[in-house]
Design goal:
Elements (H helix, E strand, L loop, with lengths): L1 H5 L3 E2 L15 H12 L6 E4 L2 H8 L6 E6 L12 H9 L7 E10 L5 H15 L5 H14 L3 E5 L3 H6 L10 H25 L5 E7 L22 H5 L1 E7 L1 H4 L12 H9 L2 E7 L2 E5 L9
Parallel strand pairs: 3-6, 3-7, 4-5, 4-6, 7-9
Antiparallel strand pairs: 1-4, 2-8, 8-9
C-alpha cells in the first residue's frame, strides 16, 4: 500500500537543508564558522574507483544507524544525476543484508487537512525548487530497498502538524519551524524503528536518507536544533555513522562550499576521475561522487 499511495502526493524530502546553513541563521555565527573552517588543514580522505567501494569501506566500522544526508538537486542541474539516484544504484546494493529498515525523509499529503496543508505543500515546492522527477527517485529508492528485504518507512504528518508550521501572520509557513518539524519526526520515527527491531531481536542496522543538515553528529550550536542524532537512544548514538553525499557540480560554484576546508578535493575528484571519501571524525564522513563526464565546471 505504501507505494500505491505515494505518487505525486509526496512532499519530496521537504526543504530539509541541502546545505549546512538553515534559514535565518545568525549571520555573525556563520561568518565566524567559515573563518575557522578556512584555517583548517585539508581533512583526511581516501580515493575509490566508485561509490560502491567507498560504502564497503564504511561498513567495516561498527554501526547500528547509518544517517545519510544529501545536497539536494535543483532545476538548473536536472541534467545531472542526483545523489539519491547514485546512492540507489551504486551504494544501496552494498547494504543488502546489512540493513533491516530504510527510512526516507518524505511524507504523504492526504488533501484532508484544509488550507494550511495546501499552503505548506505549495510553499515547500517553491522553496526547494526541485525537479519533478525527484518524486520518482524517492519511490524507486523505497522500492529498491524493499526488494532487498529492507522494511520501507516514511514520515507521518497530521493535520495539527500543518497548523503548527504557520508563520506569525498565519498566511504561510515558517521554514525554520519546518526544519524543526522534520527533525523531530526523523528522531521519533528512527527511535520507534529501533524499538521495533529490538522486539524482533534483529541485529541488522537501519538507514535514514534525507537532507544533509539533520544527520550531523556534532552540529554547531546554531544547527543543533535541526539534527535528530542527539535525540536517539545513547546506544544508537555511539554506533551512528554520518555520511553526507555531494554531487560535485551542485556545489562547485556555491559560495558557502568554496570556503570549506575540503573544497580543493572537488578538483581532485575531477582530475583523478575518482570518488572521494572525506573523514571528519571517526564516525562522520562526506562523499564526493564522480564528476559527470559531459559536465563543465
Amino acid at each position: 500500500m505504501l507505494f500505491r499511495n505515494l505518487g505525486m502526493l509526496l512532499v519530496c524530502l521537504s526543504l530539509c537543508a541541502c546545505r549546512k546553513t538553515p534559514p535565518k541563521a545568525n549571520a555573525k555565527h556563520r561568518k565566524q564558522a567559515v573563518q575557522r573552517t578556512v584555517t583548517q588543514k585539508l581533512p583526511p580522505y581516501m580515493s575509490f574507483k566508485n561509490a560502491s567501494e567507498a560504502m564497503t569501506y564504511l561498513l567495516k566500522r561498527p554501526h547500528s544507524v547509518l544517517g545519510i544526508g544529501e545536497y539536494h538537486q535543483q532545476h538548473r542541474f536536472k541534467h545531472i544525476s542526483p545523489a539519491i539516484e547514485r546512492f540507489r544504484k551504486q551504494m544501496l546494493p552494498q547494504l543488502g543484508g546489512e540493513i533491516s529498515d530504510l527510512l526516507v525523509e518524505t511524507w504523504v499529503t492526504t488533501g484532508q487537512c484544509g488550507k494550511q496543508e495546501k499552503v505548506v505543500v505549495k510553499e515547500v515546492k517553491k522553496v526547494i525548487k526541485r525537479p519533478k522527477k525527484t518524486t520518482n527517485h524517492i519511490i524507486e529508492l523505497l522500492k529498491a530497498g524493499k526488494r532487498m528485504k529492507m522494511a520501507p518507512h516514511i514520515l507521518r504528518a497530521h493535520c495539527k502538524d500543518y497548523e503548527s508550521l504557520q508563520d506569525e501572520k498565519k498566511t504561510g509557513f515558517d521554514p525554520v519551524k519546518m526544519l524543526r518539524f522534520v527533525t523531530d519526526k526523523l528522531g521519533q520515527t528512527t527511535t520507534w524503528i529501533l524499538k521495533e527491531r529490538k522486539k524482533r531481536k534483529q541485529k541488522a542496522a537501519i538507514a535514514i536518507y534525507g537532507g544533509a543538515i539533520h544527520n550531523d553528529i556534532k552540529p554547531s550550536e546554531t544547527l543543533r536544533p535541526f539534527s535528530y542524532v542527539h535525540t536517539l537512544p545513547a546506544k544508537a548514538q555511539k554506533k551512528f555513522i554520518e555520511l553526507d553525499l555531494y554531487v560535485p557540480e551542485y556545489i562547485y560554484e556555491d559560495a558557502h562550499y568554496k570556503k570549506v576546508a575540503w573544497y580543493p578535493l572537488l578538483n581532485k575528484a575531477k582530475e583523478t576521475n575518482k570518488v572521494i571519501l572525506i573523514q571528519h571524525t571517526s564516525r562522520s564522513f562526506s562523499l564526493i561522487f564522480k564528476w559527470t563526464p559531459t559536465s563543465k565546471k
